[in-house]
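Narrative progress, year one. The postdoctoral researcher (J.K.) led the effort to move from monomer predictions toward full complexes, under supervision of the PI. The following entry was the first complex the group processed end to end, covering 926 residues in total.
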Amino acid sequence: MSETPAVIDRLVAALGPAAVLTDPDVTSAYQRDMMPLAPHGSPLAVVLPASVEQVQEVVRACADAGVPIVPRGAGSGLSGAANAIDDCVVLVTTKLNEIVEIDQDNRLAVVQPGVVNLDLRNAVEKNGLFYPPDPASYDWCTIGGNLATNAGGLCCVKYGVTSDSVLGLEVVLADGSLLRTGRRTVKGVAGYDLTKLFVGSEGTLGVITSATLALKPIPQAPGTMVAAFPAASAAGVAVTRVVREGLVPSLMEIMDATSIAVVETYLKTELGAGKGAGALLLCQSDSGGEVARRELAALEQICTDAGADLVHTTFDAAEGGMLLKARRAVLMALEEHGDWMTDDVCVPRTKIVDLIGGCERIAAEVGLTVAVVGHAGDGNMHPTIVYDASSAEQVALAHKAFAAILALGLSLGGTITGEHGVGKIKQEWLARELGEVGMRVHREIKKALDPGNLFNPGSMFSV
Amino acid sequence: MSETPAVIDRLVAALGPAAVLTDPDVTSAYQRDMMPLAPHGSPLAVVLPASVEQVQEVVRACADAGVPIVPRGAGSGLSGAANAIDDCVVLVTTKLNEIVEIDQDNRLAVVQPGVVNLDLRNAVEKNGLFYPPDPASYDWCTIGGNLATNAGGLCCVKYGVTSDSVLGLEVVLADGSLLRTGRRTVKGVAGYDLTKLFVGSEGTLGVITSATLALKPIPQAPGTMVAAFPAASAAGVAVTRVVREGLVPSLMEIMDATSIAVVETYLKTELGAGKGAGALLLCQSDSGGEVARRELAALEQICTDAGADLVHTTFDAAEGGMLLKARRAVLMALEEHGDWMTDDVCVPRTKIVDLIGGCERIAAEVGLTVAVVGHAGDGNMHPTIVYDASSAEQVALAHKAFAAILALGLSLGGTITGEHGVGKIKQEWLARELGEVGMRVHREIKKALDPGNLFNPGSMFSV
């Protein structure tokens, strides 16, 4: 602790006083992300470097002083990975927000980590290009955070996750040196795939200061199909048939009965699901024209065969947008019923029904509402627990439900996190999923790249 | 060396005498892969384990005795990565050749590493599924080798490389323990992406004993378009336009003037390119029906606008197959002109023309034939040098041309290997591409996972 003032002095000397925040009233805004129940501490300082060199300076200063660094972007995360620990330096990347290059002919962009996802989407769209990853927070989350957590979104069923769009990175390592991974070419196998090692490493191995991203052609305006089922099991049958028949919609979302009910109340509208609908499937095709029509007709047929009470397809952008809005409104709708905490498990797509059924049982058992929404096309479900954060008893029950959902996901052959990450809330679950050898390899890699345990110590796993 | 007999005894005890080959006349067949100029040594023994437990036994025995292990599959590699070094044990995975599971509903397969790529393709096709990676040697290369080199092929422009199809692995580590990476779900971010760290690691980090592979729906029967250009530059303009316009053919191959000429002679047929054609583009669409027609028409238009002398589209499977056969026949055709050595660089797609032009200059400079064929859709080019392996002078010139092509690829913003790997022929080039920090990180990871330098020492890089 005696070195504390020295490190602050050094940070101020390197970054200027305006970029080094130490007032607790100010730094508290950078203490945590959007996962309410993850622990967080009080940072020594929050720094906002504005260049790669400044990031290197921060890393060297902290390494020399033995002060841990927690890197973060906008703080939209849902695992506490960006949460401060006591006496750390929070390294915020939001000032590194330049779109350095958009290369239309090679379909790539080079960006700094603080660029907001939506800003990148808009910028490349002007060049006739498309950046697929679309986490729910896409209008305020940063690319750096997306990279650190390997963020997903609604696009994944057709376009994959963030790591599928990354060609190369620049990363400041624990000794302050700058590592360049990957390349600007579409293919390349020169050496280990370090790019994908850093993507999803949740700020535990280095600070990403630049990314070269692969872009896609802009897809066609989507057509949208909605299907309402009497029970989740019927919707599950439809999802399995869609996968089996080789259909690849550009979006396939599921809402359970609880989600439908709260959204209908919240939006003061009917989703056309009828009273007491058991589940809703929302699908899009962005293939355009005749192909989209054929894909959506095939999806309609599958849903009807699986027992849907209602199927409806629209190519009207406003109507399609409304339906998507309903899906995106679930969390806000749940807010009217209490505090919420969203879980994130991914199961084999044939097991979605079992997951929804299991969540119903867990909800009944703990006596809390659990609404299930999720990306049915890839089995990534977000059971969301509604509770009263001011009640210690309800908080304990919420934790119990959260854990029961993870155990259920694992028992169904799934993973404890499809896209939100491990962070500071699922460390023990990571060990349970990976096993002893897997954890040992994680520790060996962490120790090899960050021997002083400088970056985000205790997050994801302890060394 | 004194421990040699002991390790052989132990291997024989574990695997049985038939699975431990020591006769030099027999082991010589396992000394090298298909890259003629990569160095190779004489193995102490060649072992063919038939179970994961036997692989673990081999690893433990060799680790205890300090005998290095070179893992290999069928030996179709083109970088010498599977080449034996003196007094090593070559661990052949071809007896681990079971397709353990095909899960149609979750679109995945679990396979052992010795399964031949084509056997997997055929097996999943019977279940209505498609395994995209299609290296040129797909009818005899193994999945294990594909994983170790992160193999590509003609499919990559639309379907990506091997790592894009891998969900999880089982790997025997240097201490004989069994690591499970990844998962059976489509998405998952629990921990570091160890799966992709091992894919493409060329047998330097462990022995892959099982892989869970993501499958795709079977695409439609392809339509094929061929375009002949007066000069490579015009074909390059067409490739850039295709990328810029957002077209994604399922195949887009380029052949330069030399490749066209040797193939026409070899197949005793005309490719319709006319006398002295400068380049040929071969494209396919597997989107089916009206969409394929539209895609191929758009490709035709782009080629015509770029100055093609001839464009021709066919939906006749036999005719399309003939055209593809011509592309695949280039190496065999070159064999009639001498020995060949194929290089493997990947450049930004806008730089293909510069690469072909540069290869012409290099060919003239060294006085050898260099034929350029490649995957134009992703910039992955295979300039192939024809020389006389019995002439020391020509061998030296071939080496010179090989190196000049790599330097050219790097100078164009490309990589020294798009899909063949580094192996035992491009180690110094890897260091040149990755730089000091990149190499240090490689060594740190290697040391963390294989502290005794047991696996494929000296291949890819030296510790």
